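Retry 2 of 3 after timeout on previous attempt. Resubmitting structure tokens to design endpoint.
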């Protein structure tokens, strides 16, 4: 009996000294109010060559430049005394557009026929002509067109007639009634130059009336609007300024490098606020090549818990009082950028304790770690009262080093997601394209449901506009005045074409 009374107090003392086999610490206290402590998104620049099909905006050339000139039934005086006269008719073919540098050259072939008359004082009228059969003389009409956008996004053109010349030096392309001394070719070319020159100012004005700003504003509004990818993933472009560089020929149109400065990103969570920035004035010059955008990805805590548990399960931790083994690791969010790490263990003693710390990205190892892990206050209090030896440096040092999550796979996923989601149609005829070359983390935040990692994805981008955006709404076609050339022919001499 005495022996039994002696053993019981001894076991009680040993238990208080550290023989306790089951330790269950409560979860750390979570913040009642969650505040995202990640700093504001870093500035990102997207520079996109913007293809503006100016050639399609000049389709009115065909409608405004007369297709026919003159009338074989209308005789025009060739000499002041009035005894010589002539008539002609000419037909313009369609314009062929050629791009040279920053200029559009529009050329068309003119085919014509002509006849001259001389009424002598005595005797019958003498006549002669050319092109009366199927083989008619030809001439080449060439327009030089410089196009661009001004600061208010209005399409401006400067159209100049560079010349109307015989198509070749062959006899076929010369029409001269020699015995009457009437140069029909010269008369036709002068008439064509004059009629076309009269049409050019109106054509410049009509092209300027084409509404370029409205479709650009539609695009701008689309760029301001957050684009829903999933219920909790959003693409935001957040444009700020637009600049246009030098115009040059590319493909089948004149294009300009239009750079859009923006702060693009793929963000998780609730729908971001929409910016109300109006379309800014168009600047001149280029922004820096390339772009960077912010992307976000989340490691959910159950996923992190499973990853760490699989990596550390059955791993022994040597302590002064024996060896314990990791059974399970549970990670939770606590607020203020901190996480709780619950360690369930067995061995010389068993139970669950909690440690807290702030996760960071280690750029050297490419892992997410928690280098400042310390025992939570509740766990520390229990250990002090019963298992103080567990509170030594062995467990915290082990977990600081080994409780880590590889981030490279998530970064690759973020880069692929950024490329996939930024290659999309923003509006009819407007396509955004991107080629992501790398993704590097710029911040990490312990959220309520998982670790949110923010990365800067870099690459190149393009914003393409279809030609239909610049088509003018149908308007009443002006009637080409095929007979309105008589006054220009009265002098009988060729007019020097306007300068380039």
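Retry 2 succeeded. Sequence:
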């Amino acid at each position: 009996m005495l022996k039994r009374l002696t053993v019981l107090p001894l076991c009680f003392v040993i238990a208080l000294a550290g023989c306790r086999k089951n330790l269950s610490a409560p979860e750390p206290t979570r913040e009642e109010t969650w505040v995202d402590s990640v700093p504001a998104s870093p500035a990102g620049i997207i520079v996109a060559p913007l293809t503006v099909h100016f050639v399609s905006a000049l389709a009115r050339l065909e409608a405004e430049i007369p297709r026919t000139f003159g009338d074989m039934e209308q005789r025009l005086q060739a000499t002041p005394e009035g005894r010589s006269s002539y008539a002609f008719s000419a037909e313009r073919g369609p314009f062929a557009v050629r791009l040279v540098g920053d200029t559009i050259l529009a050329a068309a072939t003119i085919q014509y026929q002509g006849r001259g008359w001389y009424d002598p004082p005595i005797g019958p009228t003498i006549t002669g002509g050319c092109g009366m059969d199927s083989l008619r003389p030809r001439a080449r009409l060439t327009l030089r067109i410089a196009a661009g956008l001004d600061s208010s996004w209005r399409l401006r053109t400067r159209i100049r007639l560079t010349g109307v010349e015989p198509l070749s030096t062959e006899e076929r392309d010369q029409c001269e009634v020699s015995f009457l001394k009437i140069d029909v070719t010269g008369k036709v070319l002068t008439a064509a130059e004059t009629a076309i020159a009269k049409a050019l100012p109106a054509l410049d004005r009509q092209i300027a009336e084409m509404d370029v700003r409205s479709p650009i504003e539609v695009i701008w509004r689309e760029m301001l609007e957050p684009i829903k990818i999933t219920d909790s993933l959003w693409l935001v472009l957040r444009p700020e300024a637009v600049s246009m560089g030098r115009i040059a020929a590319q493909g089948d149109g004149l294009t300009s490098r239009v750079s859009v400065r923006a702060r693009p990103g793929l963000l998780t969570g609730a729908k971001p606020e929409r910016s109300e920035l109006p379309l800014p004035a168009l600047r001149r010059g280029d922004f820096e090549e390339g772009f960077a955008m912010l992307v976000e990805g989340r490691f959910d805590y159950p996923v992190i818990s499973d990853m760490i548990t699989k990596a550390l399960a059955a791993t022994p931790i040597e302590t002064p009082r024996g060896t314990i083994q990791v059974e399970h690791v549970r990670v939770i969010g606590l607020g203020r950028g901190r996480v709780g790490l619950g360690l369930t263990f067995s061995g010389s003693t068993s139970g669950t304790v909690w440690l807290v710390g702030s996760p960071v990205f280690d750029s050297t190892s490419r892992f997410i770690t928690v280098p400042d892990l310390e025992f939570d206050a509740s766990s520390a209090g229990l250990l002090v009262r019963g298992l103080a030896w567990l509170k030594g440096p062995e467990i915290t040092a082990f977990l600081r080093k080994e409780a880590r999550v590889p981030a490279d796979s998530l970064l690759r996923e973020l880069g692929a997601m950024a490329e996939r989601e930024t290659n999309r149609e923003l509006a009819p005829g407007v396509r955004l394209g991107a080629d992501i070359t790398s993704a590097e983390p710029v911040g990490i935040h312990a959220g309520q449901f998982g670790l949110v990692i923010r990365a800067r994805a870099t690459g190149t981008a393009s914003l393409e506009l279809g030609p239909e955006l610049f088509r003018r709404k149908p308007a009443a076609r002006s009637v080409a005045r095929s007979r309105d050339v008589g006054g220009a022919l009265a002098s009988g001499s060729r007019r020097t074409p306007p300068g380039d």
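Attempt log closed. The first strand starts at residue 22 and ends at 24.
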